[in-house]
Write a structure and sequence with these properties.
Elongation Factor Tu (Ef-tu), domain 3, SH3 type barrels, seven-stranded antiparallel β-sheet, elongated
Amino acid sequence: MAAAGDNANGAARVVVGSIAGVHGVRGWLKVFSHTRPKENIFNYSPWLIESAGDWREHRLLEGRVHGKGLIARLEGLADRDEVLALLGASVAVPRAQLAPLPEGEYYWCDLIGCTVVDQAGRDLGRVAQILETGANDVLVVEGRERQLLPLVLEKIVKDVDLTQRRIRVDWHGG
């Protein structure tokens, strides 16, 4: 399972992280990454940074692991105050930058919003988000009730049809 972000559904941009803080006084920023492994966020450039509902393009100049986190330097951001203004902002990349995946692998952003049905065709709801756990990822399905379904291909997730935006599962409620 590849984690690219938590939105999009085929949109022109895919959220791959967010601005988590500042590092130093020369425009470096702390980044929270949705990619796996987390440093894969540095494979993408330009980044699209959301600020006040507007998306601005910034070329990634440098990025590296720093302690347990990530830091980056972007073109056009040269001081701490400019980065402070972006705290919490989403980091996206153009959808075209995402590599094609092998059959049976999916970007999380493509699963968000899919309808989930059981083996009998009963609608369980829609995928609202995906959680990463130590053992396996978990689909958070919002319907009549909120359900957490292990994202285990073949055993629980029987079929993913991105064209129909439908996921068929072997699940008997929880």
